[in-house]
Design goal:
Blueprint lengths: L2 E2 L2 E3 L6 H4 E3 L4 E2 L7 E10 L2 H7 L3 H6 L9 E9 L11 E5 L12 E5 L3 E3 L6 H18 L8 E5 L4 H12 L3 E6 L4 H6 L4 E4 L5 H6 L5 E6 L15 E9 L6 H12 L10 E4 L6 H13 L6 E6 L3 H9 L6 E5 L4
Parallel strand pairs: 10-11, 10-13, 11-12, 13-14, 14-15, 16-17
Antiparallel strand pairs: 1-4, 2-3, 5-6, 5-8, 5-17, 6-7, 7-9
């Protein structure tokens, strides 16, 4: 039986970085279905949702088997193809999104992925960079594209993290005027990515700063989920037919209550008055092809906070959990 190395997370109350382990005997090499490819992982990138899910407590035992292999972002080389795969060949460099804790994660030497969830990597682009844009790019693109067009004024809440740095660039590639928020230390980073205006939430109340501009924004893309009342008061800075789109937030009970209220409590009962959408992104090849094209054209660039070697995956999660990452945290599973 073929085996491979993979990081796995066992079930326990400890922080995720203390529960990760590599079995000395390895784990079985994944098999693939007819419409999947087996990718040899070069680079994997981490997302906050992963450690938040893995630290849910008792709830995670009802959702996941144990142990699980984390990692949703992947870039690597096609090692095998299924019988119904004709868009990729063995040896192709690809990137995209895998199932992570919901199935097979990219913190492993090999990962099976649907042919619909990957795209070719343009020649000359780096695995670390491509892995870093996959899930956040897919999510924010699907959040922005239906509502934003050339000339739209967009407010992106949280511009300096892994999601925000990609959101700014996608909005600019779509032709939008972008206002974003961040701390004082990250203002220049956001400007360098194309933000037309940056609001420093450290220097004053963010909602008051938005309200002072009047009802000028066509949409809000919320990567953070705070301030908690941002959606509730969004009618004071969104145009009358504007859209509030949320792609990020916390996993606490209060966060879930807030999400539920945003979705179902009408304005006349104290809820928000604007159209509200919570993005549940679905991986598709066309989305990844568009992101890859923008990377090749120079309209997007990767923003990496830090890179770790494969045996340093627990340190990578520890860095991600600080909440201070400027851009994405990447794990190099294999040297290209």
């Amino acid at each position: 039986m073929e085996t491979m190395k993979a990081w796995q997370c066992r079930s326990s109350p400890d922080p995720v970085e203390k529960r990760l382990f590599i079995s000395p005997a390895g784990i079985p090499m994944p098999t693939i279905t007819d419409d999947q490819v087996l990718v040899e992982t070069y680079s994997a990138a981490l997302n906050p949702i992963e450690h938040k899910i893995l630290e849910l407590g008792l709830a995670k035992k009802l959702i996941f088997r144990s142990p699980v292999t984390p990692g949703m972002d992947v870039c690597g080389r096609v090692a095998r193809i299924g019988n119904k795969v004709d868009s990729f060949r063995v040896g192709d460099m690809v990137y995209g999104a895998c199932d992570g804790v919901f199935g097979a994660g990219s913190l492993a030497q090999f990962v099976p992925i649907s042919k619909h969830s990957i795209a070719l990597v343009p020649e000359g682009l780096e695995p670390d960079d491509m892995a870093s844009i996959a899930v956040v790019g897919m999510t924010t693109y699907q959040g922005l594209k239906p509502h934003a067009k050339a000339g739209s004024k967009v407010f992106i809440n949280g511009g300096s993290g892994g999601t925000g740095t990609v959101s700014i660039q996608i909005a600019k590639a779509l032709g939008c005027h972008v206002t974003t928020s961040c701390s004082t230390a990250n203002i220049e980073l956001c400007r360098s990515l194309g933000a037309d205006e940056v609001l420093d939430y450290k220097s004053g109340d963010l909602i008051k700063q938005l309200q002072s501009k009047g009802r000028v924004f066509d949409m809000v893309l919320d990567n953070v989920g705070s301030p908690a009342n941002l959606y509730k008061v969004s009618h004071t800075f969104l145009v009358p037919n504007g859209n509030f789109v949320q792609v990020g937030g916390g996993m606490s009970l209060s966060d879930f209550r807030q999400l539920g209220a945003n979705m179902i409590v009408p304005g006349f009962l104290g809820g928000g008055k604007m159209k509200y959408t919570f993005v549940t992104a679905k991986a598709n090849a066309a989305c990844f092809e568009q992101l890859a094209a923008w990377m090749k054209e120079g309209k997007m660039r990767a923003v990496l906070d830090s890179t770790f070697q494969f045996d340093e995956a627990p340190k990578a999660f520890a860095r991600l959990k600080t909440g201070r990452a400027r851009g994405k945290v990447v794990v190099r599973v294999r040297q290209a």
